[in-house]
Amino acid sequence: MARAALDTGLRGFVSLSTIAQGEHWPKSMITTTKRAHDANVGLVKRWQGAKGGSARVQAWLSLRQIMPCPPELVGAMAESARKLGVKVHTHLCEGVYEIDYALAKFGKRPAEYLASIGARDRHMHCAHSVLLSENEMDLYVRHRPSACHCAFNNYHIGPHRHFEMWRRGIAIGLGTDGAAAWGSLDIFQVAHMTRIGQQAVAGTPYAHRNVMPSEEILKVATNGGARALGLEKEIGSLEVGKKADILLVARNQLDQMPIQDVYFVAANIVVGRDVRTVVVDGNVVMQDRELLTVDREEIDRRLAERLPGLMERFD
After folding, report:
1. Rounded distance between C-alpha atoms, residue 175 and residue 190, angstroms
2. What is the predicted pLDDT for the residue at 53?
3. Distance between CA atoms of 197 and 311, rounded to whole angstroms?
4. What pTM, to 2 d.p., does this model score?
5. CA distances in angstroms from 68 to 25, 51, 103, 113, 312, listed in the order given
6. Contact 237, 290 (CB under 8 A)
């Protein structure tokens, strides 16, 4: 995946889905604590030293969730993250089952448990973070982990407190949660859903009619995402000295007319298919909807060949 991102001109991080315990997981996915830790550290070091990797494609450590990762692995990952200067990607407070597990196993809620073993700091990146108690929210503010709100997925779990996290200074961005995860890979649509969801959660109950204005949700999607990745000094806004990561968007679509407020149109109407040109680190990777770094016909051909065999193996 990292090589593919490098070859196609994308920016991003890769990580291993780390599982070191649990009877219900396929045996092929389970490894030992030492192997899990060493494989993660090896991945990070490999991409820190890769040609072109440290500039645009990098690796993080990863803990899938607290259930399949024993405390010794969580502690070792947190320590290595500090030594390597990277983040640990994990899923946290994503479901009632996780909270029940943490209370039964450790007598603490998930974020409280991580804090108790010294794994709750700016090096931890917590996807979802939906079911936070008041104390857990305070721990986020105090210890400064980053978070990612995957709006299409998260509202079926609970009333995500994204607005509160954003206003309290927590480094939170937006995410798609991957393909086939209750929604689209279109980050514009995620922003739309976030704004609607937060209006329902944090606005309407208190007669606050515009809880996240257009300019603010755009800041979450750009500046917020960069800050959550720890890259706010490099990307996330158009400023002298930052990398040239730019989207050029069509503004002549019928559903955009008449354009009286460009922020409103960008935050509420634009979707991914309106993006015409993409520039990453100063290099054009898509121009006028044509992908310049991949052969789309070849991808479609190979997918058509492989998909039937993959689905035959799918249980």
Report:
1. 7
2. 46
3. 35
4. 0.93
5. 9, 33, 15, 15, 28
6. no
